[in-house]
């Protein structure tokens, strides 16, 4: 049918230099199309589809696709632009089971564990640096498995469980990290020896930066204090790091830190759990600490940030046991 219509239309154009408008029951003189109109319409459509024309559909579509790609890249680079926080701002604790790809997730709402298998290489170890990031991502670096210190780092999209492998930095375990201004800072740790270095991963450029520590520190714990952060670690390491001046200041050498420890912030009060004791400090006078409050502090605390929920703090150990710490009574108990 269409073939016949086209033949009729071409014949009419050749004979009369005009064509009737199709699909009209009633036809009059105003329904005639001049040959020049056809030429103009063909030329207009050619311009719109011609790749050489800057305003063609081809060019405009290409520009739009390119701009969409650039915008997607911008979103990927800007995805971590969020306000900084002093504690973990997620309701879940995350830790890998030793020697596996199993990521344990503990809900501080339901107080229950769940497990996801993450397709990451190699199998994960204990004492890895783990930090929850905005937009539901998890940063993981290092760890200790099968007598080996890992140097791998990666991001996990917790919505899809997809892994984004990052550049390796150094063999490390037993170090905490903290997120600030699109960077993840890892202070100290242990490789073949205690480390005196801070490695910062820039989430926008995907590159590592390095800063020196005033001395070696292992089993580090970190607490953000707005314009600075408090860092504790083995042995007797207690310093503040100023974010603006990139400088350290020793807080005190009177607090004994021989091993694993964890910092917990409760409004202006700071709890330092270490060696079965609770040391209490205050943000307003950080150099003064009350010591020797007895508690059943675990001896194998992990290096992921604790989560505060109500009057309790939650954290994990290397065996994926979950601890609940009472901020008022200083009592610690295993709950999962």
UniProtKB/TrEMBL annotation:
Protein name in the entry: Uncharacterized protein
What domain of life is recorded for the organism?
Answer: Eukaryota
Species name for this entry? Stentor coeruleus
InterPro entries with a match to the protein in the record: Kelch-typ_b-propeller (IPR015915), Kelch_1 (IPR006652)
């Amino acid at each position: 049918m269409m073939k016949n219509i086209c033949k009729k239309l071409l014949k009419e154009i050749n004979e009369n230099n005009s064509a009737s408008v199709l699909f009209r029951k009633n036809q009059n003189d105003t329904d005639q199309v001049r040959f020049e109109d056809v030429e103009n319409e063909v030329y207009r459509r050619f311009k719109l589809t011609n790749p050489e024309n800057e305003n063609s559909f081809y060019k405009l579509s290409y520009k739009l696709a390119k701009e969409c790609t650039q915008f997607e890249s911008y979103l990927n680079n800007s995805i971590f632009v969020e306000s900084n926080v002093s504690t973990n701002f997620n309701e879940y604790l995350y830790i890998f089971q030793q020697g596996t790809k199993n990521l344990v997730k503990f809900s501080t709402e339901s107080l229950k564990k769940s497990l996801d298998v993450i397709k990451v290489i190699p199998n994960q170890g204990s004492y890895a640096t783990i930090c929850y990031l905005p937009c539901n991502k998890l940063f993981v670096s290092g760890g200790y498995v099968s007598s080996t210190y890992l140097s791998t780092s990666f991001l996990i999209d917790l919505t899809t469980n997809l892994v984004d492998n990052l550049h390796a930095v150094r063999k490390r375990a037993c170090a905490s990290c903290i997120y600030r201004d699109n960077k993840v800072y890892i202070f100290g740790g242990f490789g073949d020896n205690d480390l005196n270095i801070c490695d910062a991963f820039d989430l926008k450029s995907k590159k590592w930066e390095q800063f020196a520590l005033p001395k070696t520190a292992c089993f580090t714990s970190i607490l953000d204090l707005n314009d600075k952060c408090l860092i504790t670690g083995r042995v007797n390491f207690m310093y503040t790091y100023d974010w603006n001046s990139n400088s350290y200041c020793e807080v005190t050498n009177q607090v004994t830190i021989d091993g694993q420890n964890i910092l917990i912030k409760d409004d202006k009060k700071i709890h330092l759990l270490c060696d079965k004791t609770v040391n209490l400090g205050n943000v307003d006078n950080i150099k003064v600490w009350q010591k020797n409050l007895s508690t059943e502090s675990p001896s194998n605390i992990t290096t992921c940030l604790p989560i505060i929920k109500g009057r309790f703090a939650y954290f994990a150990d290397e065996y994926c046991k979950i601890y609940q710490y009472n901020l008022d009574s200083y009592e610690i108990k295993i709950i999962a």
